[in-house]
Write a structure and sequence with these properties.
It comes from Sphagnum troendelagicum. The chain crosses the membrane at residues 12-37. This is SH3 domain-containing protein. The strands form 2 sheets. A 5-stranded antiparallel beta sheet has the order 6-5-4-1-7, with no helix packed on it. The chain has a two-stranded antiparallel ribbon with strand order 2-3. The two termini are 36 Å apart. β4 (61-73) and β5 form a beta hairpin. It has one helix spanning 15-25, and strands spanning 31-35, 40-43, 52-56, 61-73, 76-83, 91-95, 99-100. It contains 1 helix and 7 strands; from the N terminus they run αβββββββ.
């Protein structure tokens, strides 16, 4: 198997500075939100007919990775694909109706 070496045209020591700058100025891929109403069911897709995974208790912080259109819940058809475990590796869809992002909910589609 052949290997390829890539050389940077940046002066020595500048690459870490460029990486740090990009990390500080690139928008986050997720935003912390807060479940504000009653306990909310987590599902495998953006529909109440999708498989149930678990229930997130009211008041739990979640991370929203992306949004999807789905079943209309009380006038809101947006669903959020969230991470909800302590390390955010447990994921699933919750109705956006139950999530308060303070106006910061991400706009990228799943």
């Amino acid at each position: 198997m052949a290997t390829t070496t890539v050389k940077s045209s940046l002066p020595a020591g500048l690459l870490p500075v460029v990486i740090a700058f990009l990390l500080m100025t690139t928008p986050a891929l997720y935003v912390t939100c807060y479940i504000v109403t009653a306990d909310v069911n987590v599902r495998t897709c953006a529909s109440v007919s999708c498989d149930y995974i678990t229930t997130i208790p009211s008041g739990t912080d979640v991370f929203i990775y992306c949004i999807a259109n789905g079943d209309d819940i009380n006038g809101d058809s947006q669903w959020d694909y969230v991470g909800y475990s302590s390390d955010n590796t447990a994921v699933g869809y919750v109705s956006d109706f139950y999530v308060d992002c303070g106006g910061l909910c991400p706009g990228q589609s799943c």
